[in-house]
Amino acid sequence: MKLQTAGIHHITAFVQDAQRNADFYAGILGLRLVKKTINFDAPEVYHLYFGNEAGAPGTIITFFPSPVGRKGRIGSGQVGVTVYAIPVGSLSFWEERLNAYDIPVTKIQRIGETYLSLADYDGLRVELVEREEGPQSTWSFGGVPVEHAIKGFGGAVLYSAAPASTVDTLVHTLGFERVADEDGYVRLRSEGPLGNVVDIKIDPLPLGAGGSGTVHHIAWRAKDDAEQLEWQDFVASRGFHPTPVQDRQYFNAIYFRESGGILFEIATDPPGFANDEEPDKLGQKLMLPSWYEPHRAAIEGNLAPFTVRELEVKRQ
């Protein structure tokens, strides 16, 4: 059986302030905070997950907010743009909404589609594009009605230091299909309904530098633990060096760096974010893995409180 990922599982980025992060992704974009936990490797830092009503694979963007973190620089070796899919007919709603919150927006064209291009408060690049495919979100927050709500990822734009090698990895290792070469990009497509379109910029940019306002890694979907172990062996057979399986509580993960410098993860779809909270209470409490629970008081004392809140429109 040929292995083929269904597309993006999640994308993880660095930001500075948890409150501003929640204000942008929940307050303005209308996503749901589905998990409030910590960076398991650095428990003094939040790990925040935003997605659709259930935090389904293909909808999840995650953040490490660190007020003392350095400012990053977007460039080669990174995910350059996170692309969100919105329902057909929703572009004007989002253009008006973003303008009302004083978020600068530019309309751009790429491979026959119109995108709204913008940046979050830390400078992370975001695009919105209308897509027919993908289930409709049922989550409504902050004045975003379900008929215009973000469905999940439309995909991502990768800035590779070795674009041809990155294309080769996505096609021959992860199972994407090459579907277009236009406008200075190679477009690849996977089989999933969300997070299934990846554009790779053909001309490399100067190397990026990790830090606030940049993406740390992009994760691809594995159906379950058994398939993930198949991926681990296959990735190694292709000359990469995958890590051992890491327990991330809501999925299991392996990591490897592809030849263009981008950190790839392969993450399992299960068990999901209702693993330790009821579905209607996702994101309301700081959740800790069992090995950190004895240190809860100290951990909470080191984390700045924030709230998911509705924002006032800045201009009509």
Automatic annotation (TrEMBL):
Keywords: Dioxygenase, Oxidoreductase. PROSITE patterns: VOC. CDD domains: PcpA_C_like. It comes from the Bacteria. Pfam families: Glyoxalase. SUPFAM superfamilies: Glyoxalase/Bleomycin resistance protein/Dihydroxybiphenyl dioxygenase. The keyword Oxidoreductase applies. One of its GO terms (molecular function) is dioxygenase activity. Residues 7-131, 152-269 form the VOC domain. This is Ring-cleaving dioxygenase. It comes from Paenibacillus stellifer.
